[in-house]
Amino acid sequence: MFKLDRTLTYRLHLLHKLTDLESQRAYVAGAGLSMSDGRCLTAVGSFAPLSVNDLAQMANLNKGQASRAAQSLVDQGLVRKAASPTDGRGVVLTLTAEGDATWRRAMAVVDRRNHEIFGVLSATEREQLSRLFDRLIAQAQASDDE
Questions:
Q1: Residue 93: is it exposed, middle or buried by C-beta count within 10 angstroms (0-12/13-18/19+)?
Q2: pLDDT digits over 110-145, tens only?
Q3: Hey, how many other C-beta atoms are within 10 angstroms of the C-beta on 62?
């Protein structure tokens, strides 16, 4: 018989919920950021320059959430918002010097959390899981494009 608790989506959601609370605490303790701000700052620092739409995509947020998070980071002096050279109505987000230092602390949180969560797996298993996730993400993106 079909068992809901053995499905991929159920198990991914469960893993997400189980790890999210500790990740929230870790962002505050390690970088002085909320998890939302931390996720957005790590995206800007890793993929800049970004538009708000790019930030939404890279941080897995909707445009409204990304816009609010970007403004929060600007207000904190961590992100610079400048007019886009290619889109008259758009903006480009980059890190400030203070943002770069905070980004480095936030990335250390991400790295530590990644090791805590996946440390139970061997290096071979982590690589295999990474490849499997790549395939699943590619399939989901292809399905979404149709």
A1: buried
A2: 999 999 999 999 999 999 999 999 999 999 888 877
A3: 8
Q: Which one-letter DSSP state was computed for residue 2?
A: -
Helix, coil or strand: residue 129: helix
For the whole model, what pTM was predicted? 0.85
Residues in the chain: 146
- Answer whether 39's CB lies under 8 Å from 55's CB: no
DSSP E strand boundaries for the chain: 79-83, 91-95
- How far apart CA 133 and CA 118 sit, in angstroms, is 13
**Separation CA 80–CA 13 (nearest Å):** 34
Residue with tokens 């109505």: 89
Contacts of 136 (CB under 8 A, 6+ apart): 8
